[in-house]
Design a protein that fits this description.
The strands form seven sheets. This protein has a three-stranded antiparallel beta sheet. Strands 8-9-12 form a three-stranded antiparallel beta sheet. The termini are far apart. The model has no long low-confidence stretch (mean pLDDT 95). By secondary structure, the chain is mostly helical. The protein is built from 13 helices and 16 strands.
């Protein structure tokens, strides 16, 4: 028995030594990676040029700004960052909802088939727009405020008053909009229109950004995970509101796993429909795996460490099966031809199976946070490599790894920069966050 104990101890010591050696090698790889320095330098240059989503957009969108506000803080004074947040709050509607984006009033030219612009007495310079098929604008703004305060330490901003309400009160008002106007009593979850994973193009209408009489309402993982993250952020900023919001947060988390998690297949169901599916009866939508919504679910703390590994394995399998360049693949398999009226939503295009670093790098961040450092490093490589190969942060990539959309997509720059920073902190024995 004594000899057996010595053998076991020797094996443990050997394993520890091997692990330490592996960690040392990985840390050195992170420190010397040829693409990391280039990507970070390029990200800083891109974000210096403004706050709109990219060179093909005139608007500042909150779902994008939320993902690069921390990077913007590296090159802009906090007053500039804060003013953008103020504009969203000044444009907040009478029911508490938050606009999708804003644009200077002089550029807000109304067209027959374009956006219906939103104006308020509180905001003299900008007009708002709201893509109301998506339900992430309110959550995105709360998350952006949290990131701003954590990055700058400007807690005084939370008590600043706009139109008689403090920033904290306006954040709560935005969350109350979701409870009052986007809430399913049957499921205890929030709903939106039928879109592809985190996308903001619904199945019906040639454009697909406005709720219409043909909209099919559905519950999905992305919207509800985003709200959970926002509630966590809001309560962290204002602990005195926990008594009200913590039970709501717990119920949403429980109901998300109850109704959206497919335990047999270890994945999230794409949609729970409130008034019937828009797709044909012979189409099994649950064959589709949502990459982006799953990443956000991990951020919301819904999956165990083991489930995170299973999710990553599925994503890698999907990448291999599709031929895509990275786990930023929106979903797999893609919705069939004709599932969306918008002509840009054909299979493996745009939000219907395009490869978006904007979400892939968020999955990388969650892998790092949950201790999957080596896996995160490996899966990040194709994302940083194509930044250098294509000299830019493109909006999305085809499954042949061809860049598409804006080449200065700041959301991609923001999430990549943060992922690299987290890995470098690990390599230098610093706190990851």
């Amino acid at each position: 028995m004594k000899y057996l104990k010595l053998i076991v101890l020797s094996v443990l010591i050997c394993n520890c030594a091997n692990t330490k050696k592996e960690n040392t090698v990985l840390k050195e790889q992170i420190k010397t990676n040829e693409y990391f320095a280039y990507t970070k330098e390029k990200a800083l240059k891109v974000v210096k040029t403004g706050f709109n989503a990219g060179d093909s957009y005139g608007e500042v969108w909150i779902r994008d700004y939320n993902t690069f506000i921390e990077l913007s803080a590296e090159v802009f004074p906090k007053e500039a960052l804060k003013e953008n947040l103020r504009v969203f709050f000044r444009l907040q509607r009478e029911d508490g909802n938050i606009v999708d984006g804003f644009i200077p009033k002089e550029k807000a030219v109304q067209t027959k088939d374009g956006y219906t612009y939103i104006f308020t007495d509180l905001e003299p310079n900008y007009a708002g727009q709201k893509n109301d098929v998506e339900t992430d604008h309110e959550s995105s703004l709360v998350q952006a405020v949290y990131k701003y305060v954590k990055k700058t330490g400007d807690t005084a901003f939370l008590n600043e008053t706009i139109g008689g309400k403090t920033i904290i009160q306006r954040m709560e008002w935005a969350m109350e909009f979701l409870l009052n106007h986007r809430w399913s009593d049957k499921y205890g979850l929030i709903w939106g229109a039928t879109t592809a994973d985190w996308g903001d193009v619904q199945h019906c209408h040639p454009w697909g950004v406005y709720i219409t009489k043909d909209t099919k309402y559905a519950i999905d993982i992305y919207d509800n995970a985003m709200m959970l993250v926002a509630l966590d952020n809001m309560m962290a900023l204002a602990p005195h509101i926990k008594q009200k919001w913590q039970p709501i947060r717990q119920d949403i988390a429980q109901n998300t796993m109850k109704y959206l998690w497919d335990d047999k297949n270890q994945k999230f169901i794409p949609h729970v429909y409130l008034d019937g599916s828009p797709f044909s009866e012979d189409f099994n939508e649950n064959n589709i795996y949502y990459h982006g919504g799953t990443a956000l679910a991990i951020e919301a703390g819904l999956l165990s460490k083991e489930q995170i590994k299973v999710s990553l394995d599925k994503m890698i399998s999907n990448v291999n099966a599709s031929g895509a360049g990275s786990i930023g693949l929106t979903l797999y398999p893609a919705y069939p031809e004709g599932s969306f009226e918008n002509k840009g939503m054909f299979p493996y295009s745009y939000q219907n199976g395009g490869d978006w670093t904007w979400f892939g790098a968020r999955m990388i961040q969650q892998l790092i946070k949950n201790g999957y450092i080596e896996e995160a490093y490996q899966q990040l490589q194709p994302m940083v490599k194509r930044v250098k190969d294509n000299d830019g942060f493109y909006e999305w990539y085809t499954i042949k790894n061809t860049p598409e959309g804006s080449g200065t997509f700041r959301g991609s720059a923001g999430v990549l920069y943060k992922a690299i920073q987290m890995l470098e902190n690990y390599a230098n024995n610093k706190p990851i966050e």
